[in-house]
Design goal:
Oligomer: single chain
Number of strands: 2
Amino acid sequence: MKTENQKAWFFVLPVLLLVAFNALIPMMTVVNYSVQETFGDNLFFWEGLTWFEQILRSERFHAALGRQFLFTFLILIIEIPLGIAIALSMPRKGFWVPVCLVLMALPMLIPWNVVGAMWNIFALPDIGLMGYTINHILGIHYDMTQDPIAAWMTIITMDVWHWTSLVVLLSYAGLVSIPDAYYQAAKIDGASNWSVFRFIQLPKMKNVLTIAILLRFMDSFNIYTEPFVLTGGGPGNSTTLLSIDLVKIALGQFDLGPAAAMSLIYFAITLLVSWLFYTLMTKDDLN
């Protein structure tokens, strides 16, 4: 009779302990706060699902969630096609390959708070290079501190500048992994550039694009530091994304119960949409 050696589970134990320390214990703390009310002095009162009902019926939450979905939608429809286009235009061999790769990686090496501060100064209407150029040289009114549309354009541009490189590098990795034999066969058949992209390059990049879309969705849906440093959620609440509103409730108003319930709802939405993305993009592979 064949016996199984269970000792291999000991190698998994450090990972389980690390996950428990980094994720499960903080998560259980949030769950604990989400069903209780506290007024300090470590005194807690049972509230049940009150905070969840309050958050789900809150117009403020609905507005912030709508802004968050709009921001993520705009980021994905801009960064994914733009990243693929840049990757297709990059050289595959020669001296310029490492130069292009280093240039593409540079924006991602800058800390998030520095990116926000940098774009804040860059976009100020009177002293920032971009703001001054648009206002005083191009003659177009632009003031991200007063105009919600200008503020949205600025945070979208900032994120595209910061994170399109990730899509470029992943797409480029998918492109260079395609064997030359595919291109030689397409050339013999007289295939156009669009046919090569449609039937060779795009299918071969599918796996890396799935990763790119998931990473960009999760990051843009949870983004906090860059837009907070850039606009502070303003003007008004026009750029108050869900993460910014959550921090305002937790640390600004010190409403820990509603903030904890909102955190769990936020996490559930992120998890659900990520699962839907992954399922839709891999359903052909599963079949």
